[in-house]
Write a structure and sequence with these properties.
By secondary structure, the chain is an alpha/beta fold. 25% of the residues lie in helices and 32% in strands. It contains 6 helices and 17 strands. It has an 8-stranded mixed β-sheet with strand order 1-16-17-15-12-9-10-11. Strands 2-3-4-5-6 form a 5-stranded mixed β-sheet, with no helix packed on it. A two-stranded antiparallel sheet has the order 7-8. Strand 5 and strand 6 form a beta hairpin. Helix 1 runs parallel beside helix 2. The protein is globular.
């Protein structure tokens, strides 16, 4: 298990009855979370004083109520800065548990002598992109959603990385990988955070269980002769971290050696002292990386 416990401006204050009580900078949010199946007393008075609460609709979807939030605001994680913007499906534009992976990739990149080229796929608003670039890597950031790529550019600029070697690509990830193979381009590191379901900009359908094996196998062909790491994130319910590790064992470790590991990502809950599971990661890294 990897715990994102180095935050100063984000805090999971409490978790009860399917909801999180969170502090994002100076704002308090209540958001739904299907992992929170326990019933505990809500002693924290901020439950009733939240700046916004996301409520699901019985007909599907949902929306923010009691919304006293600005359109957007910024928070930081160390030297990294991010724009937060509440979205229609409970999200804020940032997954705080991923800070555990940002720390990991930053450490590996800083230790590696020579250039590190990172391919970040399904890259969303660029948390991993700015972490890798801040550590000294060049990054190719690929996502099918134009508005998410635009926000990633803003996050890079907020982090002092407007002129960093980052390429932003709006494209279907598989099609981009296929073109990179034809071009002969190589990378020392790969990050992918695929959705359970999705559509590419051209209407391409994606279902993780049916497509991830082929994508990992294809993307592994882009690794250079000195690869550093390959990271897969998953938020697909019921899919074990070991499933993703098996893919890395087959497609990367078998070819390059090195080591694989897998585990859950978690956030500490201040009220109870417990840990909230927040998705899974599988990591391959070169023997030379440790």
């Amino acid at each position: 298990m990897w715990i994102a416990d180095n935050w100063k401006e984000y805090e999971l204050l409490d978790a009860s009855d399917g909801e999180r009580l969170e502090r994002w900078g100076k704002y308090i949010l209540v958001r739904p979370d299907p992992q929170i199946i326990w019933h505990s007393e809500r002693r924290n008075e901020l439950w009733s004083r939240a700046d916004a609460t996301y409520k699901r609709s019985s007909s599907g979807g949902g929306g923010w109520s009691r919304n006293r939030l600005p359109e957007s605001w910024n928070i930081s994680y160390g030297d990294l800065n991010f724009k937060l913007k509440p979205m229609g499906f409970k999200h804020t534009g940032l997954f705080p548990e991923q800070a555990a992976n940002w720390d990991w990739i930053s450490e590996l990149i800083k230790k590696r002598e020579g250039k590190v080229r990172v391919l970040n796929m399904f890259a969303y608003t660029g948390g991993a992109t700015v972490a890798a670039a801040a550590a000294g890597a060049s990054v190719v950031h690929v996502d099918a959603a134009k508005n998410m790529v635009a926000q990633a550019k803003e996050n890079a600029a907020l982090s002092g990385l407007a002129d960093a070697p980052i390429r932003y690509i709006v494209d279907d990830c598989k099609k981009f990988v296929e073109r990179e193979i034809r071009r002969g381009n190589k990378y020392e590191a790969v990050i992918m955070d695929p959705p359970s379901y999705g559509r590419g900009p051209g209407g391409e359908m994606w279902k993780l269980e049916e497509s991830i094996d082929g994508l990992v196998s294809l993307t592994a062909k882009l690794l250079s002769d000195r690869p550093l790491f390959f990271l897969i994130n998953s938020y697909t319910t019921g899919l074990s971290p070991l499933t993703m590790q098996y893919l890395l064992d087959l497609n990367v470790k078998r070819v390059y050696g090195g080591k694989c590991e897998a585990g859950e990502l978690a956030l500490p809950v201040r009220e109870s002292g417990g840990l909230l599971p927040c998705g899974a990661s599988a990591r391959w890294f070169s023997e030379l990386a440790k």
